[in-house]
Specification:
The complex is a heterodimer of chains A (about 210) and B (about 210). By secondary structure, chain A is an alpha+beta fold. Chain A contains two helices and 13 strands. Chain A folds into two domains: about 30 residues; about 150 residues, Sandwich (Immunoglobulin-like). Classes of the chains: A alpha+beta (about 210), B alpha+beta (about 210). At the A-B interface, strand 4 and strand 7 of A face loops of B.
Chain lengths: ~210, ~210
């Protein structure tokens, strides 16, 4: 049988237990330190989020860059820009189509690599990142997914895009991946367009599509 | 009488000793009660926007400029020559950074008696008539896409049965989308927020006689 523990001394400056009594200044510093630590943790988290690429960036298409006359390999097909011109009015199938901006008309050559493909994405992109799809004001079977390209057989034709007059630094993108171009090969061809030609209001006729093996 | 005075004194004493947070609670409950008694908690009625007012729908800005009732009007051909077209005119500017396809989402006709075709439903559950076609007024071609930074005047067509009552006005909804993360793909996209679609009531001008003679 052990003797009972003596009661704590009420006159003692330091109470029993592991915690010490801290003064108001220490308490203030401890609280301020906690707040600063939380703010620092949030700041580090925010910084990490900023430098981490988002899903759109991580899964962006692979842009295959090139220039006029160069054969661009877009995995399942190749694309070559043969000629680029601009106009204020285009004529296709006896219909005349004026624009408030500029018609950009590209003569392209496409060749499927191993399997038949349909090109269903065609856009001109400006330096501000705006994408202008091939116009639906005229029939464009070469790039609307309706024309099947057979392997090794080249098809040439003109594709018309409408862009506003303030669009500069243009490149042309083509793909067979449709709307979901996640990590797909997409051409990115620098366009040598004369931006003053839109002043010409004479209708420019769209040349017909032709097979050119 | 003395009993009543005693109760009053007790109540006054009780109230004067109430802490501030209790007062705030009581005032809030009373205000909510009064508000609900006078209809304050009912769903607010939708207020149609005016014609010729630009409406921001997210990736597009739409200004409804009018509506017409006409006969056959190429390139839009009626399924029955006796029928009519309800045509809603709008100026639309794409403010997103890419060409917008499927312009049907921008202007939707609220259920209207005699309009041909089945009703569709928005994701928010509101019924609307899908249009029969959209014509670009610049060159009178049928289109279904618009480019960013190039506002255009468009005509939206719906076919009205010949024996239907002639509407003096129609109600259209301007579609609303918000640029936010898709929970499935984690990609930023213009997501449907059709619960926020904005109504516009448009007077219909009867031009059947003119379209018949032309």
């Amino acid at each position: 049988m052990t003797a009972p523990a003596p009661p704590p001394d009420p006159t003692s400056a330091r109470p029993a237990g592991r915690h010490r009594n801290i003064g108001p200044l220490q308490r203030f510093l401890a609280r301020t330190g906690s707040v600063l630590l939380v703010i620092a943790a949030l700041g580090v988290g925010d910084f990490l989020l900023r430098i981490t690429p988002d899903v759109d960036e991580r899964q962006r298409p692979f842009l295959e860059q090139g220039e006029q006359g160069q054969v661009i390999d877009a995995r399942e097909f190749s694309a070559t820009l043969l000629k680029a011109r601009t106009a204020g009015v285009v004529k296709a199938a006896n219909f005349v189509h004026p624009t408030q901006g500029v018609w950009v008309i590209l003569r392209m050559r496409f060749v499927a690599q191993k399997e038949p493909v349909q090109i269903d994405y065609a856009a001109v992109v400006d330096e501000r990142g705006r994408s202008f799809y091939a116009s639906d004001r005229l029939k464009q079977p070469l790039v609307d997914g309706s024309r099947s390209l057979q392997p090794g057989i080249g098809v040439e034709g003109e594709v018309a895009f409408e862009v506003p007059r303030d669009a500069t630094g243009l490149t042309a993108q083509f793909s067979n991946a449709g709307t979901n171009r996640t990590m797909q090969a997409v051409t990115d061809i620098t366009l040598p367009v004369d931006e003053s030609v839109w002043l010409n209001r004479e209708p420019v006729t769209i040349e017909p599509m032709e097979v050119k093996p | 009488m003395a009993q009543g005075a005693g109760f009053g004194r007790k109540a006054a004493g009780f109230l004067s000793n109430l802490p501030m947070h209790r007062w705030i609670l009581i005032i809030t409950v009373v205000a909510l009660g009064l508000s609900s008694a006078f209809g304050g908690l009912r769903t607010a009625p939708e207020r149609p926007a005016a014609v010729d007012t630009p409406i921001d729908g997210g990736p597009w800005k739409v200004t409804i400029t009018g509506a017409r009732l006409v006969g056959e009007l190429p390139p839009m051909y009626l399924s029955d020559k006796k029928n009519y077209w309800i045509v809603v005119l709008a100026t639309i500017e794409i403010t997103a950074d890419q060409t917008w396809r499927y312009l049907t989402q921008t202007v939707q006709l609220a259920p209207t008696k005699g309009v041909k075709g089945n009703l569709s439903e928005t994701m928010a559950g509101a019924a609307y008539h899908p249009n029969s076609g959209i014509v670009l007024l610049r060159d009178v071609t049928v289109v279904d896409q618009l480019n960013p930074g190039m506002p255009e005047k468009l005509a939206f067509f719906w076919e009205l049965e010949a024996n239907a009552p002639i509407p003096s006005e129609v109600k259209v909804y301007i579609g609303v989308r918000k640029y936010r993360m898709d929970n499935l793909t984690s990609k930023m996209e213009w997501m449907d927020h059709s619960e926020l679609n904005k109504p516009v009531v448009v007077p219909v001008v009867d031009r059947r006689a003119e379209s018949a003679s032309s």
